[in-house]
Amino acid sequence: MIEAPEDGDDGRIGIFPSWTALYASVIVVTLVMILLLYWFTVALDFSAS
Amino acid sequence: MTAPDWTVFLLYFGGVLAFAYYQSRKNVGVEGFFLANRRLPWGAIGLSVMATQASAITFIGTTGQAFDDGMGFIQVYLPQPLVMVVLCVVFVPLFYRSKVFTAYEYLEKRFDPKTRSMASFIFLVQRGLAAGIVLYAPAIVLSVLMGWDEKVTILVMGVVTIAYTYMGGITAVIWTDVIQMLMMFVGIGVALFILFAALPDGVSVADVAYIGGIHQMWESIDLSWDPTNQYTLWSGMIGGFFLALAYFGTDQSQVQRYLTASSLKQSRLSLIFNAFVKVPMQFFILAIGVFLFVFYHFEQPPLVFNTAEVAVVQASDQAEAFEALEAEHATLHAGRRDATLSLLDARHGDGDVSGLRQQIADYDDRLEALRDESKALVEVVRGASSNDVNYVFPSYLIQYVPAGVLGLMIAVIFAAAMSSLDSELTALSSATVIDFYRRYFRKGDTDAHYLLVSKVTTLLWGGVACLFALYAGQLGSLLEAVNQVGSFFYGSLLGVFLLAFMVKGANGHGAFWGLVAGMLSVAVVSVTTDLAWLYYNVVGTFATIVVGIAVSGMTGGRAATGASA
User: Fold this and answer.
1) B82 and A30: CB-CB below 8 Å?
2) pLDDT number for residue A3
3) Which of B78, B219, B276 is the closest to A45 by Cβ?
4) Considering the entire predicted model, what is its pTM?
5) Listed residue (B342, B344, B341, B339) closest to B364, CA to CA
6) How many angstroms separate the CA atoms of B444 and B130, rounded?
7) Scanning every residue of chain B, which has its alpha carbon at the shortest distance from the alpha carbon of A49?
């Protein structure tokens, strides 16, 4: 018989199939935020125009 | 403050104290006082983790910094989501499964007592200082808003926070943090809404973006490689990564939060919640500062935002000189406002904007020179440097926020301060009792005894924080002061934990001397170079690891200190 981990740390995490998928989504969101901020920096720089 | 303001403000204080009293009934034993019997849900812990980091300094200092320098400070926060992933994968499982009370207790399981004691002592020194600064920041606000002496406000706020932390322990701290964090979200939204609503007729959000843009206030990402530049993408992603990893992974005030979770999954989810929410929240807080910058193109700002300094100068023999500066400031501001409105008209009508922009640039230069002149005058009178960055947001609140909302905003700043201070008091108390008192002075006593000592220690650390706050007035920008104090120690603390987690052959001697070498390295670098302070964390971490590995190798490896974890 396989016992479930006592801390209940396995299985689906909400809409994510695994912790790996959740961590990957955090990394993707971080990259998107950096790109958005870079776009923000460039698009709203009116110092030279 | 008006009657509605006082009502909101006192309701907040009364509510927090009543809630803490209610929670105090749940404190059974020392594990209940410090770890809530390890039964809290991720949502509450996640908000508490966020509230602990978001102090009043975040509200006052960050908005002031954005008013002065723009959005660049956001880069410090960008690595935090990645840090949360590293914590979930490496740090949290080890802490959680080892059933420790403090992060430093783990170091004894892995290394030896001297490494644990040294790390815990460093934490106590660093957090003891930071607790004082965290208390001092909102005291400034109160001194401006209510005309109270700073010392009185420090003592009033300190006593209330100490009281509810003493009564309710970590359970009360975390649940009041939840309320306080939700209040902060409301406060951010209200501040932005009021700023938009107060813009002159015909000035749109696009115009705000444009005015900020011609001053490069929206510059959020700086790709330059200059290692002496404090806020670049690289200093943020490298230095900020190490700072955040050290803060969330080795600072008891944060580790204690996720040790209260009912399971490892709950613990991890609390950090993942922060990964998604923290950066957007900081973005909006910084945006308040930039909106203030634009707002004061249309409304006349004070020449000096700190009204206490103004009062001192006006009562001195420099009063006439200051009055003349204020008159010139009003004239220049009126000129810049007219030029700004004309610029927006010209832009909407495809007119020639270059001449108007040059006019505005000239006004900016003259206004800046005037501000420098006024600061010099304040310095002459006070005999101490003038830094009013932290007064920009409070000054705006006093002048422009309607009755009732002002009370709410003051309560929000209080909430921010108290939610950080309460966490620091429980963390300081837990490290003192668990890592020193119970470890060295009184082993094997009853749970009731340790609970009593924990409460007394909370009172004592609260007293230390109040005392330090009374003398924190001359530290310059509070925001940087807190982080810089941390940066002197954080890298070394992180280094010793990474040694524990990742270097199998490391032993207690290596960890201890690595820790010492890490701190010395940071001291040398800070004195002899202009390296941006965020990189101190990187220096401290690597120096600790390198020396730790070397000394471990020379002293017989892991077997030398009988590590068990």
Assistant:
1) yes
2) 43
3) B219
4) 0.88
5) B339
6) 32
7) B214
